[in-house]
Amino acid sequence: MPELPEVEFARALIAEHGLGREIVAVDDSDTYVCRPHAPGEIGEALVGHRLTEAHRRGKSMWIETDGGPVLGLHLGMAGRIVIDDEAAGDYWSDGGRKHLPVWDRFTLRFADGGWLALRDKRRLGRAILDPRIDRLGPDAADVSRDAFRERVGRGELPLKARIMDQTVIAGVGNLLADEALWRAKLDPRRPAGRLDDDELDRLRREIRATTRRALERGGVHTGDVIPHRRRDGVCPRCGADMARATVGGRTTYWCTAEQR
User: From the candidates 11, 57, 59, 204, which is the catalytic residue?
Assistant: First the structure.
């Protein structure tokens, strides 16, 4: 599932291979992926323009154009960006198999013959004009200490649910949350408002460090505890059993000995 690191890979791919190229055609015929736009509406707004800057906050990505509207792209649960023959997220494909063009839900065609596509087997990604990002919290990769304490350390919601709320901090998904909480030795079920400042600071450092490692290694699936997120899993650090429950609506694993 794409989380902050995977979206950053996609943003970097667009920044390297997609900017400055004139858009001559757009396939925006998928009315679910391109909602609320009618077929042809995104194309009419973008044809003749060039992508100029690619941005990301958390798991949301948007691309500015030269005088045209902003294009928002969201990877959903299974999407990735493909430009010409370059793909962001090949490591995350189904067993290494190439996805078929039928899964290209939204496509930009460039004057030089190339293309950019949102490839999404599960059809949960989005392409939208002028997306709203004002409701997103600060990016999890660089949120400040004071902002993290103020935003995360409040309320009675379970800690995992709190850090996965994109209006609190943006970018933490299910796997990244489990990895960071495991590294910080914090119980995902604890009410967020009951953490002290030292615990909040430790969690912030581990979220940032986990994000950096995922970027270096190739995605959130490379985390140290991720292979042990299974019913018979044991903690790779101390050997205790891993617990499993639903926290904040998501399947969650934690060490029964160290995350109390």
Answer: 59
What proportion of the chain, given as a percentage, has pLDDT over 70? Answer: 93
Distance from C-alpha of 73 to C-alpha of 33, rounded to nearest angstrom: 10
| pLDDT single digits (tens) 185-198 | 999 999 999 999 99
Is 2 considered catalytic here? Answer: yes
250 is catalytic: yes
Q: Is 3 an active-site residue?
A: yes
Asked if residues 44 and 99 have their Cβ atoms less than 8 Å apart, the reply is: no
The catalytic position among 3, 6, 8, 206 is 3
| Nearest-angstrom CA–CA distance, 251 and 260 | 18
* Euclidean distance between the first and the last CA atom of the chain, given in angstroms as a whole number: 27
Which member of 123, 205, 250, 258 is catalytic? 250
Structure tokens at 81: 């960006």
